[in-house]
Design a protein that fits this description.
mainly alpha; Rna Polymerase Sigma Factor, Chain: A; Arc Repressor Mutant, subunit A
C-alpha cells in the first residue's frame, strides 16, 4: 500500500494502519529530532510528539506534497518550538562533515583516542561547535539539519521550508560560512587559553 492509500484507509476507520506510517517514517523523523537536540531520549519524545500531531491532523493532509514532506514539516516545527521553549540550551549537531572529509574525521578520531590532551582539545572544539550552531539563524540551522542529518535533497528541503531551491542553497552556504567563522574564532580562543 502507498502512503496515500494507507492514509485513506485510516481515515475510513482502519486506525491500526497508522502504525504502518509510523514504522515507515520513524527513522527519518528521529534523525531530524536528533539534529536539533542530539539526545536520544529527547529525540524519541519529539518523534512521538510529531506522530501524535500527524495523527491529530491526518484529515488535513491534502496530498499537495508527499506524506514524508508533510511529516518532515511537522517535525521541523515541533523541533523549533521545542528549541524556543528551551532558549539557552545548545542545539548540538554532528555536522563536522561540513568542514572535514570522512577520512580526515576518521584520522582525527584515531589520533584523539590515545592522547588525553588531544581528547580535551577535541571536547573544547565540540563545545565551540555547539555554541556556534546555537547562534546561527533558525532557518540556516534547519536547512543544515535537514541536509546533513536526514540527507534530504534541496528540492524537498525547499518544499518543507516553503522556499525556493535557490533560497535553500543560499541558506546552506551562509550557514557554512557563519559556522566556519565562529569555529575559527573559537579555535583561536582555545589556543589563547591554552597559552595562559
Amino acid at each position: 500500500m502507498t502512503d496515500p492509500e494507507i492514509i485513506h484507509s485510516v481515515l475510513k476507520g482502519k486506525k491500526d494502519n497508522f502504525r504502518i506510517l509510523v514504522d515507515e517514517h520513524h527513522a527519518s523523523v528521529f534523525h531530524i529530532a536528533m539534529g536539533f537536540v542530539h539526545d536520544r531520549d529527547e529525540a524519541e519524545d519529539l518523534t512521538q510528539e510529531v506522530f501524535i500531531r500527524a495523527w491529530q491532523s491526518l484529515d488535513k493532509f491534502r496530498g499537495d506534497s508527499s506524506f514524508s514532506t508533510w511529516l518532515h514539516r511537522i517535525a521541523v516545527n515541533a523541533c523549533l518550538n521545542n528549541a524556543r521553549k528551551k532558549r539557552g540550551s545548545p542545539v548540538i549537531s554532528r555536522i563536522t562533515s561540513l568542514f572535514t572529509s570522512e577520512s580526515e574525521a576518521e584520522t582525527q578520531a584515531l589520533s584523539f583516542s590515545d592522547n588525553p590532551e588531544e581528547i580535551l582539545i577535541k571536547e573544547e572544539h565540540s563545545t565551540w561547535l555547539q555554541k556556534a550552531l546555537d547562534t546561527i539563524p533558525e532557518n540556516q540551522r534547519t536547512a543544515i539539519i535537514l541536509s546533513k542529518y536526514d540527507d534530504l535533497p534541496q528540492k524537498e528541503i525547499a518544499t518543507i521550508m516553503n522556499l525556493t531551491e535557490g533560497a535553500v542553497e543560499a541558506l546552506l552556504q551562509r550557514a557554512k560560512k557563519n559556522l566556519r567563522e565562529k569555529l575559527s574564532t573559537g579555535a583561536k580562543k582555545i589556543k589563547l587559553n591554552r597559552r595562559k
